Amino acid sequence: MFTRSSVLVLTIVLVIGLFSAFTVAVKAQTKDPSLTLYAGEISSSTYGFGNSSTTLTSPGPTLTLIEGTTYTMTVYNVGTMPHAWEIVPTQAVSGSPSFKAGIDISSYISPGSSGSVTFTPNKAGNYYYVCTVPGHIALGMYGTVVVQSSTIPEFPSALTLIFMGLTLTATAAFVAKQKTKTKRLF
Ligand SMILES: [Cu+2]
Question: Number of structural domains, the chain?
Answer without folding.
Answer: 2
